[in-house]
Amino acid sequence: MKTSLLAAALGCMLLFSPIGATAGALDGFAGAKGTLKIAGGTAHIPVMKEAAQAIMSSNPDVQITIAGGGTGVGIKQAGEGLVDIGNAGRKPTDEEVSRYDLHMVQWAIDGVAVVVHPGNPVKALSGEQLRDVYAGKIANWKELGGSDKGINLYDRDETSGTREVFLKNGLKDGTVAKTANVVVSNGAMKTAVAGDPYGIGYVSVGHIDATVGPVALDGIVPSVATVKDGSYKVARGLYSLTKGPASGLAKLFLNYLLTPEGQKIATDKGFISVL
Amino acid sequence: MSRLSAAERALQLTTVCCGLLVAAMLVLMLVLAWPLLHSGQLLSLIGGDWQPAAGRYGIAPMLAASLLLAISAVLLAIPLSLGTAFAAVALAPPFLRSPLMLCVRLMAGIPTVIYGFAAVFALVPLMRQWIGSGSGFTLLTATLVLAVLIAPTMIVFFVGGLRAVPQGYSLAADALGCRPVDKLLYLLLPQAAPAITAGIVMGLGRALGDTMIGLMLAGNSAIMPDSMLSTGRTLTSHIALVIAADFSSMEFKSIFACGIVLYLLTAALVAILRRTLPLPATARP
Predict the structure, then answer these.
(1) Is A173 at the interface with chain B, CB within 8 A?
(2) Is residue A159 within 8 angstroms of chain B, CB to CB?
């Protein structure tokens, strides 16, 4: 009786263990050996870390190091051969591609949606209105067709990749008023906006659910579909670059990111799959 | 010197190791912040404001928010803790005293993040309504929760001090016809003063060092707070918010400035305590 219970428990553990689930996609790493150095964009890091962990726990002979530094560092270090894979939060320019002989793989899309409380009547903003709201020039919901209440701004910490996209493509490099509340993650942003009837914030599109109301920007409602077809513009591709065609461990790693398991890691971290 | 047993030696060794560890941390921080110290940037960092876009990485707003939050939380926690300690030692009916202390110890064991999480859902909307404008994430919100958080630490110190007053004094006071309140005010309180001060300083240290409450409730705007109803970012929150950045950036260096300031503040607190006060009654030989 005891042994059969134990066996059943072990069976359950195997069935649900992440290693068991990804074994197929990781088969290519069998017999692989060596070190893989990755650096660059900070938005990529959570996905890179989780993928690296899955790979290293299935094959202890592979060592993967992951550093940040930002997109610029990713392109430069990959181009100069200092790292095997450089991560970039934008498409490298033609000049960069030709100078360094860069080859790129886009493995996810990062879209950022403006969100308000689901009960807020303001459901659409123009790009200019959004910039004025975040700059503090529009400070009352009345000016946008809502109730006569002050607008509570929510912002992310300066190292957030989501913030980077929002500032660049959403605010067109506009400013954020210094009085904005700062929260530390997409989850915390959702909690804050969901609890604040007069708040406005932004989250990765993959994080939108019923607790917050997405705001259409210039007439386009942010969703996984509109980000994928390119009509919603506050988005960017997540790229990984290699100098010359990817080979060896780098190639195995990038292939893994494009398997269903790799893509699941990306969607779990709030990105949109490219498959 | 007298001979020490093996156990005493082991304890001595542990103490020395702990002390060295603390010193080593300071050395590590100094080494990492050396570029700042060397170029004389540290002072401008401590005095300046935070505008990374304009190349200004000062931590003055965070320092102000930290001090404001910690000091007001302690001021709020003092009456709360003193009252609870009085009740637990002298004023409450005897059968209530040990359940009361049980509650206090239980509160001391609840993780900070639980307080923060509960307050985000329960206190923040209330504060938003009560203040009438803004998001409800204010220094005052954080202060209220932080006061509750540090109270158990202070209560335990206070109760220890009050209980250490010799029984004979208490009997003598009773014989003189003192009411419990008189006994508390004129005998127990003055006798326990060192322990009470120690409790307050411990509370202040905890309030300064706490991260989650400020991070979850104070709003984290890197602006100089102009009132308790404004939002603010504490030094510890600042470290938590900036930690993921690039190692060679000024942002990263500035968090070491935060670390040094926190370290020195705490060290100064302990030093002041040691200089101005005799040892707590409980620690006297």
Answers:
(1) no
(2) yes
Mutate to test the interface with A, among B50, B59, B135 (most CBs of A within 10 A): B135
Check whether A13 has a pLDDT greater than 50: no
Whether B231 and A184 lie within 8 Å, measured CB to CB: no
A199 to chain B, closest Cα gap in Å: 7
Report the amino acid identity of residue A131. Answer: R
More confident residue, A22 or B11: B11
pTM exceeds 0.90 for this model: no
Q: Mean pLDDT in chain A?
A: 86
For B60-283, CATH number out of 2.60.320.10, 3.30.420.140, 1.10.8.420, 1.10.3720.10 equals 1.10.3720.10
**CA within 13 Å, CB half, A231:** 12
> Does A174 touch chain B if contact means CB atoms closer than 8 Å?
no
By Cβ distance, the residue of B135, B245, B246 closest to A181 is B135
pLDDT tens profile B27-60: 888 887 777 777 777 777 788 888 877 778 888 9
Average pLDDT over every residue of B206-224: 91
CB proximity A162 to B under 8 Å: no
Contacting A residues, span 175-214, partner chain B, CB-CB under 8 Å: 175, 178-184, 188, 191-192, 195-196, 198-199
Asked whether residue B272 carries a pLDDT value surpassing 80, the answer given is no
Rounded Cα distance, B1 and B7, in Å: 17
pLDDT band for position B248 (50/70/90)? low
Residue A221 burial by CB count (10 A; 0-12/13-18/19+): exposed, middle or buried? Answer: middle
Mean pLDDT confidence for B226-235: 91
Q: Please, which residues have CB within 8 angstroms of residue A116's CB and are 6 or more apart in sequence?
A: A122, A193, A199, A200, A201, A212, A213, A215
Chain A, chain B: beta-carbon pairs less than 8 Å apart:
66
CB under 8 A, 24+ apart: contacts of B187-194: B188/B89, B188/B90, B188/B162, B191/B161, B191/B165, B191/B281, B192/B158, B192/B161, B192/B162, B192/B164, B192/B165, B192/B281, B193/B161, B194/B161, B194/B277, B194/B278, B194/B279, B194/B280, B194/B281
pLDDT digits (tens, 9 = 90+) for B62-90: 999 999 999 999 999 999 999 999 999 88
ipTM of the complex: 0.75
Q: Which 82-141 residues of chain B touch chain A by CB within 8 A?
A: 120-121, 124-125, 128, 133-137
